[in-house]
Design brief:
- Chain A is mostly helical.
- Helix content of chain A is about 50%, strand content about 5%.
- The first copy, chain A, is built from six helices and two strands.
- In chain A, a hairpin with a 5-residue loop joins β1 and β2.
- Chain A is elongated.
- At the A-B interface, α1, α4, α5 and α6 of A face α1, α4, α5 and α6 of B.
């Protein structure tokens, strides 16, 4: 059982940007997270639409973690990226048992329990205490972003 | 978020065989469930190893739902087929955030809640009441298995 790749990326980006008040860019995120730039660009766009990231305009423009986004939950991000998908593909696979299947309902209940746990985890919870600075150090080490000039807000 | 294809198939096979006390074969299961024979063969072998199915020897040999397997849970089947896999691929994807990541623990908690729900669902629960005969009718209609001779045990 795996989350979609986009969901996985969205959570990493949300976590890394939550750790930093400074703006970043798609290029920086792609480097810091060792992910493909085009995928990161798509995921960032989506994260902007659901209010996790905001656009920062101007010479040092880019994206930044939205002011209130720390109160959004991991569950909200996962739901936004996974959509209404079930953990099994009953219709798409043309399963003939569908009319008499009780399993599907149980799997839906299990999925709700999964999301229920993540509904209790705010994005800020992921970077509280020592986790935030540690994430920044890791991100900075990976990309050289730690060497940014001080006017960058870090 | 999707279960592995093998897990999905294993659950369908467990459900269909739980509905019937009669023996069946890999070929019949593949036809009834509209799945590839080679995949069904692999999954059946695994289901035998974990005690869901037993081998029926002789002229009308094949496999059958094991006598005590009704008390096995959906959670046990899912665990057996999904292994220890997490819902994200932290190591395989080489995520640089791994050392400072709190998300992973939360996702593990969510996964445990998912499995916890399925630990409460016995295979017999899936075929209690009208669900069992309905599943058999569906399976039978799809394959003609409903026309089996009476000595087949149905």
């Amino acid at each position: 059982m795996k989350l979609n790749q986009s969901t996985d990326m969205a959570l990493r980006i949300a976590m890394l940007t939550a750790a930093s008040p400074a703006r970043t860019t798609v290029d920086e995120l792609a480097t810091q997270l060792a992910l493909s730039r085009s995928h990161v660009a798509k995921v960032v766009q989506r994260l902007q639409r659901i209010g996790v990231l905001v656009t920062v305009r101007g010479r040092f423009g880019g994206v930044a973690f939205a002011e209130q986004a720390g109160d959004l939950t991991v569950g909200q991000v996962v739901r936004a990226f996974e959509g209404d998908d079930e953990v099994v593909s009953c219709e798409q696979s043309g399963c003939p048992l569908i009319a008499g299947c009780r399993l599907r309902g149980e799997l839906r209940r299990a999925q709700a329990a999964f999301l229920g746990v993540l509904d209790g985890v705010r994005l800020n919870d992921l970077v509280d205490g020592p986790a935030g600075p540690l994430l920044l150090r890791i991100g900075g080490l990976a990309s050289g972003a730690g060497e940014r000039p001080p006017e960058d807000g870090r």
